[in-house]
C-alpha cells in the first residue's frame, strides 16, 4: 500500500461517514436522548460493523456475503424492528427532572447493538466495502501490516466523524432546560429512531 492509496481510502471513508444517513441519524438521536456517552456506544457498534465488512472484503469473502444475501435481509428486518422498539422506549420516557441526567437511558448493549444493526442493514456500507473498496487498494496484495493500517484508518476516520456528530448532538441536548421542551426532544429523538427502523424494513 502507498501513502496515496491510504489517503484516498481515508478520504472516501470520510465522505461515506459524513453524508447524512441511518448511522448519522441514529447517533444524533441517541446523543439527543441520552448524551455523548450513550451515543459513543452506538458509534462503537457502527465502527465494528464497518470493520466486519472490511475484513470480509480483504479476505475474499465478498462471494460469501452475496450467498448470505437473504441473511442480510433478515438482519435488516430485525434491526428495523429493534430500532422501532428503542425509539418507542425513548418516545414514552418521561423526564424526571430538568437536569436531563438519565433521560431515556438504555443499556450499553442496546446502544452498541443498535449501531451494529444499522451498519449491517445499510446497503451503502455494504456496497462501499464489498464493491468500491477494491478500487482504492489491491486486496490480494495486502500484508498483515497493511491490514492493520486499514483497520486503523477505518476506525479513526469513521469513528472520528461519528463521534463528532455525537458530540454536537450532546451539546444541543445541554441547551434543553425546560421539562416540556425536553419531553418534545424525546419525542423527536424517538420518532427519528422509529422512522429509521421503518425505512430499514421497507427497503429490506
TrEMBL record:
Topological type in the membrane: Multi-pass membrane protein
Gene Ontology molecular function: any one: amino acid transmembrane transporter activity
Parts of the chain that traverse the membrane: 6-28, 40-61, 67-91, 112-133, 145-165
Keyword terms: Cell membrane, Membrane, Transmembrane, Transmembrane helix
Subcellular location, record wording: Cell membrane
GO CC annotations, alphabetized: plasma membrane
Designated name of the protein: Lysine exporter protein LysE/YggA
Amino acid at each position: 500500500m502507498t501513502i496515496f492509496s491510504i489517503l484516498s481510502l481515508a478520504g472516501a471513508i470520510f465522505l461515506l461517514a459524513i453524508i447524512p444517513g441511518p448511522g448519522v441519524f441514529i447517533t444524533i438521536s441517541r446523543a439527543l436522548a441520552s448524551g455523548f456517552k450513550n451515543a459513543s456506544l452506538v458509534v462503537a457498534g457502527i465502527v465494528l460493523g464497518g470493520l466486519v465488512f472490511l475484513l470480509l472484503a480483504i479476505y475474499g469473502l465478498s462471494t460469501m456475503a452475496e450467498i448470505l444475501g437473504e441473511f442480510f435481509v433478515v438482519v435488516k428486518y430485525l434491526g428495523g424492528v429493534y430500532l422501532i422498539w428503542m425509539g418507542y422506549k425513548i418516545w414514552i420516557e418521561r423526564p424526571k427532572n430538568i437536569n436531563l441526567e438519565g433521560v431515556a437511558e438504555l443499556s450499553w448493549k442496546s446502544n452498541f447493538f443498535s449501531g451494529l444493526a444499522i451498519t449491517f442493514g445499510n446497503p451503502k456500507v455494504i456496497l462501499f466495502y464489498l464493491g468500491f473498496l477494491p478500487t482504492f487498494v489491491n486486496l490480494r496484495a495486502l500484508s498483515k501490516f497493511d491490514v492493520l493500517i486499514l483497520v486503523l484508518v477505518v476506525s479513526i476516520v469513521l469513528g472520528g466523524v461519528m463521534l463528532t456528530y455525537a458530540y454536537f448532538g450532546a451539546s444541543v441536548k445541554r441547551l434543553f432546560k425546560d421539562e416540556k421542551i425536553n419531553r418534545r426532544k424525546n419525542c423527536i429523538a424517538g420518532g427519528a429512531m422509529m422512522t429509521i427502523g421503518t425505512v430499514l424494513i421497507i427497503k429490506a
